[in-house]
DNA sequence: TAGTGGTCTAGACCACATG
DNA sequence: ATGTGGTCTAGACCACTAT
């Protein structure tokens, strides 16, 4: 494995372990060069990779800083429902149910766990102006996200990804979503206060860490008639 | 402007002007170094930028190659309907209607034209295995896309973006899509061979050139039950 | 064996930010 | 004035590909 790669991995680990805290200055090129006994070009290459991943920022004359995740951005990055006028609102969130159960084959596959491995299931209802908008089934590896089982569910707050980071040290970096439309089940109809047989949009999301490993799998359901989803293709 | 940037721009221009053709080998690092009288590191940095943009590919021991635009890729980039098993198929395409008409305020706004400016409207039906899947309304600036009005519609082929490039020199580089669900109109129900009042997914797409200028606006409609859309969020 | 890209080194000089 | 990152140089050595 190339030197700059090893160096990069080492730095990335230190950032994840918060040896250097978000927003803080990390060692300069020359310091790192001396610390690791490598050429300055090698240090630069390792840091350039960190920049590409969004882990650090450099500022000429100042230094290299560990980036703090901007959740006002990522909230909108991941929450892609729009109201009819194209505005995006932060819905309030309520955890309806929380339990640990053995992973089904499908979920285990998505999260790259063994079938039957313990996963946390969260049922969550998200509302805008007291109107239920989305019902979500969320699955997480029970080991990685163990702190979520002890914390009171009414302290989870309206956004889960900041919570994952705060209480479990897990950072969501990207996601894949698949959208389909189906008829609602009776249980969900009740939860969402919709008539039976309404058609709902299902968003299946696999959320990944910065290393590309799957961290969370969720299904979100909401009334199709109120649905609006936007995407950029590059 | 930094040297490596200038070099990069020069190389990028030569690629776009097809001085080196797609698929062909371009000069090696040492050749470029001598040609431009710069250090080899500078050449490398310029080429790394070309790689990041997807303009070239390098292969160890072989050399640096100009990438040929893969329309089999970009087709899938933009046509995101998937069959139930996750496979993606190339639908066949038929132009049902073609006319020039004055732009409505909405379309003019989307395409950044004046209201009433002439636009080409295409109605297009896309089928998989003779089954109609998608009905599309497509709008293009009549000036830019004038050649499309003289060409026979049965020679358009199954994909429009390669056609835009071949016959009008217009290249689609990115797009924004907005998805909604609505009830089908009677005319569309007939075209898509669906029962009345079926719910359909509507995909509104604004396709942009590499300069970010809007080139095409389209609405695609297909039965919600057969719908599957996947997106990557970064 | 010759040519290519991939890695790594060691340093010079500049532009920017701060005290 | 000092320290930082940004640019640029000049070359060594290695691993891969082709002949």
Task: Give an overview of the whole structure.
The structure is a homodimer of 234-residue chains. Chain A is an alpha+beta fold and 234 residues long. Chain A folds into two domains: 3-66, Arc Repressor Mutant, subunit A (Orthogonal Bundle), CATH 1.10.10.10; 71-226, Chorismate lyase-like (Chorismate lyase, 3-Layer(aba) Sandwich). Chain A has eight helices and ten strands. Chain A has helices at 3-16, 29-36, 40-52, 71-78, 105-111, 147-150, 160-168, 186-192, and strands at residues 25-26, 56-59, 63-66, 92-102, 118-128, 131-141, 174-183, 199-208, 214-223, 228-233. In chain A, the strands form two sheets. Chain A has a six-stranded antiparallel beta sheet. A three-stranded antiparallel beta sheet of chain A has the order 1-3-2, with helices on one face. In chain A, helix 2 packs across helix 3 (40-52). Chain A is elongated, with a radius of gyration of 21 Å. The mean pLDDT of chain A is 87. Chain A binds a DNA duplex (19 and 19 nucleotides) through residues 2-4, 28-30, 38-42, 44-45, 58-64.
Largest interface: A-B, 25 and 24 residues
Distance between the termini of chain A: 32 Å
Reading off the top of the CATH hierarchy, the class of the largest domain in chain A is best stated as: Alpha Beta
Specify the CATH architecture of the largest domain in chain A: 3-Layer(aba) Sandwich
Going by CATH, the homologous superfamily of the largest domain in chain A would be Chorismate lyase-like
Query: What order do the strands of the largest sheet of chain A run in, or round the barrel if closed?
Result: 4-5-6-9-8-7
Low-confidence stretches of chain A: none
CATH topology type of the largest domain in chain A = Chorismate lyase
- On the 0 to 100 scale, the average pLDDT of chain A is 87
Order of helices and strands of chain A: HEHHEEHEHEEHHEHEEE
